[in-house]
Amino acid sequence: MRPLRCGRRKTRSIPLGLFALCLAAAHCLQSQGVSLYIPQSTINATVEEDILLSVDYSCHGVPTIEWKYTSNWGVQKIVEWKPGTQANISQSHKDRVCTFDNGSIQLFSVGVRDSGYYIITVTERLGSSQFGTIVLHVSEILYEDLHFVAVFLALLAAVAAVLISLMWVCNKCSYKFQRKRRHKLKESATEEIELQDVEC
């Protein structure tokens, strides 16, 4: 009877052991993947502003991080690096990009041409990778347009004031000239009348 009980215990412990082994394997497989978090997937900015394309990742080991830029002009590689090493920045973005170990990048003094899709790819040493996208909209600064309009209107007002002043001076001069002419005509008319009276 006792050997039979021992045999039953062994058969019950085999499925429990397999179950624990499967759980451990699943946990290992899950922990080897790359996870990527993007807090803000759309960013609105104005010209000359500094923009942070913020991301965060988690993985085992040191991954390779790559940022690309996609717009109407095509796909362009911005930067590639491994955290703790020097970044390989493309010529088009030299002195305009700052990298961070968490995968984020900062773009300095953005312009309208910088509007588009920014794609980050985090690749683990074992080959697994994860990518994400941030959309950037860059617009002109409104107050600069208003400033230009205000200066233009002030210039027009100054020109209008000068023209009105010139018209006023011309009007005064013509009025004085007409007044003198009328006075002369009046004098000549009175002289003619006096001469006629003398002749009579």
From TrEMBL:
Any one GO BP annotation for this protein: positive regulation of excitatory synapse assembly
Domain (Immunoglobulin) ranges: 40-139
Subcellular location: Cell membrane; Cell projection, Axon; Cell projection, Dendrite
SUPFAM superfamilies, sorted: Immunoglobulin
Transmembrane segments: 146-170
GO cellular component: axon; dendrite; plasma membrane
Protein name, per record: V-set and transmembrane domain-containing protein 5
Organism of this sequence: Sciurus vulgaris (Eurasian red squirrel)
